[in-house]
Structure formats: structure tokens, C-alpha cells
Fold this sequence. Notes:
By secondary structure, this protein is mainly β. Helix content is 7%, strand content 69%. The strands form three sheets. It has an eight-stranded antiparallel β-barrel with strand order 6-7-8-10-11-12-13-16. Strands 1-2-3 form a three-stranded antiparallel sheet, with no helix packed on it. A two-stranded antiparallel ribbon has the order 4-5. It is elongated. Residues 1-30 have low confidence and may be disordered.
Amino acid sequence: MTKVLKHMALALAMLAGAVNSGRADNAQPLDEDLVIAGGDTLSIYLPSANLSRFDRGLKNILFVPKGQWEFGLTASWGEFNTNDIEMLQILSDLSFKGNMYAIRPSISYFFRHNQSVGMKIVYSHSNAALNGLGIDIDDDMNFHLSDVEYNSTTYSGAISYRNYVGLDRKGRFAVFNEADLSFTSGSSDFTRLYNQEPRHTHTRINEIALNFSPGVCVYIMENVNFNLSFGVFGLKLKREQQSTNGIDEGSHTSSGANFRFNIFNINFGIGVNI
């Protein structure tokens, strides 16, 4: 009877260990702070250098072990639509419609625990149509715009680095910061009326940009995660070549930096680890 009870207790302990296992590479817990990932015994807490004058007690928890590949798909989308808007008797007949979307397939490799490098391809498209806008400030300053259209299509290739910080001991939740260096090429078309005659401006675009995007990530299945990120800071160098109604108007080079929350740069994505 004693042997039977011992065997039952051992079976229950093994079952409990399987139910409470960590996510990292089907890891099985050895004790409170250890997991097995990729055949290696790892601590769930990653060592980090203390750069401050005292230890703040912050710990980076293992989220994705090194040696894994991740295939991802991220998308963003935004839309504006107004019709016959009036404001303070100055702005009238505002009718505007616009949208922007982007698709970003990617592949990355975890060269260290919680750190990966990879590549991604970005396709983005935006269009806007101003069907009407009236501005009336006084008798000498009033005008009306209509039939203004803008379209842009760009293709990008980027090299990216992502660093995760695990938030729970099971390895299901994390925050991350992503930095990517992108190279963009594309074109835009701007059409409007000038002296009651249509004018069409075509612009060829080439751009190099360095972007930083923080976000959050959660594993919704064993090897499938959902992530949300948004761009907050970036540096760019852009060169544009323009022509209007087929006549070359020369080129223009510009550079700049931005530090702001961009509603058009909120990205939703799915990743698969193998």
C-alpha cells in the first residue's frame, strides 16, 4: 500500500510539472528558477550589469532563448473621413477622405537570450482626396479648393534589432524595443487644379531612415505571439526628384528627426517561433 501511494504521488508531481511548464521551447521546470530550453539548463533570470549606484532590484526574465528563429507579419492601417464640416464660419464645406496602410513580413534570429537580429520588407500605400474646402476670413481673403488628390506607394528593406524584457516567470509577457535601419524607394502623385487647369506632379522618392519602436508582446499559443508596437523616434535622409506635367523640376534633399506619437505608425503583428 505504501509503494502504491508513493507511485501515485510521483505521478501527480510529474503531471503538475507538465501543466505548469514554462513557454520557452517547451521548457520543463527543474525548480523555481531553472528551465530546460534547447537541451540546456537555463536560469529564468538573465544576468545584467548594474550601471547605477545601487541595485534597483530590476530583473530581466527569459522570454525567448537563443538559437530560435522567428517569422513574423506586421500590419498597420489608418483612415480619415469627413463630409461637409464647418468651423467658426471660417472653415466650410470640408470634405476629405484618406487612408494609409502598410504590410511588413519579417524573419529574425535570436543570437542571444531575448535579443534578435533580422530583416523585413515593407510595402506601404497612402492616398488622400480633398473634394472641397472653403476658407472665408474676410472680403479680401477667401478661397475654395476642390479636386485635390494625393497617392503614394513605397517599398522598403530594413535590418532590425529587437531586445525583449520579460515580465512574468512563465515567459508569456514582455516589452521590447526595436531599432531598424531602412532603405526606401517609391513614388507619389499629386493632382490639383491651377487656374482651372489640372496639374500633375510626380515625385520619385529615395530615403534612408533609422527608427526606434517600443512595444509589447504576448504569447497566445505555445510558439505563436501577438505584438503591438508604435514608432516614437526616427532619423531620416530623403531625396526627391519631381516633374510637373512631364517637365522636370529638379531634385531636393532633406533630413530631419522626429520624436512624437504617430497614429499612422501603430503596428499589429503575429510571430511564429521555431
